[in-house]
Amino acid sequence: MKKRYILLAGIVAIVAGGYYIYSSLDRIVSQLVNKYGSEVTGTEVNLQGFHISPTEGKADIEKITIANPKNYKQPYLFDLNKIAVKVDMKSLTTDTIVIDSVDVVKPAITYEMLSLTQNNIKEIMDNINNYTKKSSSANEDAKASEKTAQQEDGSSKKVIIKRLTISEASLTAAVGGQDTTITLPTIEMKNIGQEQENQGTSIPQVIAKILDKVLSVAMDKVVTNNLNDLKNVANENLNNVVGGVKDRIKELGIFGSN
């Protein structure tokens, strides 16, 4: 009888533990992406609605937004609404979470210029590059404390993404008072994080690697499609300045009323 009760208690504990993990995933995933995404980009990252089916290992993310840096008119650099994820459920209880696939469909990217030398994509890429450099220099110190950093929120977890696909992404360039939209080529990345001897890569490093790839493709399209028409922007800025001077001269009446 005792053995039977012990067995039943063990089953109850396993079921309860599994329920806790799955019921907490929405909160945990949102917190991790929001926290580390914001650290990597230097702007606010917000994930909304992570829903997973434990029996199928399939998950859906309703929305992820990446805010623009300050002083930009458009609120977001990235706006993603359809994300399907396939997770290796067995890996959720290990140190390395294995994601079999991530499929992103029709994300919206906005390119905006503040000046001839300042635009939102470049700023975010610079932030990612600075984060990557700091992360690399602090990597050895992190390794020393990593073994004791097994926190309940999963922040010490490593990640491997076997395949990531981003399709039908739209890039809208807001330059010179006009918006031009083009479609980016399909982006596919494989085995993200497996370069670390199959032990996975930290969540911030995975986020940085993915965003750097996507933004590099976006910037290449900006250049090849001449969406950053610096000449037109410069002329418009110059005309605004000259026009302002002309209006001021008329107000003062320096050269008469005509």
Tags for this entry?
258 residues; alpha+beta; 2 domains; twelve-stranded mixed sheet; 5 helices; 12 strands; disordered C terminus
Short description:
The chain is built from five helices and twelve strands. With 258 residues, the chain is an alpha+beta fold.
Q: Major sheet: size, sense and barrel closure?
A: 12 strands, mixed
What structural class do helix, strand and pairing data support?
Answer: alpha+beta
List segments where confidence is low: pLDDT < 50 over at least 5 consecutive residues.
7-21, 146-154, 241-246, 254-258
Please give the oligomerization state of what you see. Answer: single chain
| Inertia-based shape | globular
The Cα radius of gyration reads 24 Å
The average pLDDT is 79
Task: Report the helical percentage.
Answer: 40-55%
**Series of secondary-structure elements, N-terminal to C-terminal:** HEEEEEEEHHEEEEEHH
| Number of β-strand runs | 12
Strand portion? 25-35%
**Number of continuous helical runs:** 5
Q: How far from one another are the termini?
A: 107 Å
Number of domains: 2
